[in-house]
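Example 3.2
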Amino acid sequence: MPNDPQRQNPQPGRDLQQAQPVLPGQRREPQAPQHPQHPQHPQHPQHPQPQRYAESRAHRVMDRAADAVWREVRDFPALAAWHPGIASSTAHPGNPRVRDLVTTDGIRLTEALHAVDDTLMTLEYGFVAHPFPLTDYRARMEVRPEGDTRCSVTWTATFRPAEGDGAALAAQFEAGVFAVGLEALGARGRG
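Structure, written as tokens:
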């Protein structure tokens, strides 16, 4: 049928999605592409829909100066110095941008530092080796001054869960790792 809209070729640029930037703390919702000649079939079995990212986030205001907190956060290999859930944290031999961790319950992890910005007081890192059912783990810590003697710290991570929506694992990171760590970091230097 010459006037069948399902058989017509789409116009160039029509139905294309504009790429929108994803800011830290935001989630991009992937959408299944539509086949141009079969719009009623949103995807083919050979091209499964991409998995969604899960996100963990913890935020805390601290009665500590931002510069003092940033010095501790920025010392990437020294996580065990302030995080009560980390039994040991050491720089990987020959590369201080990689740290080997052992948690207090015996889990072994290796993390790599991807970016540090001393002006914005942010750092980003990801997993190199871990036992968790996920891929594409990327975490970010950000310290913000709140006057001369206070600051806020936000710790976020995004990842693709191996199965499901990752909500349970995201909650585990948020409550069992990030919030616990920020609580301990906020308590340091008081006394």
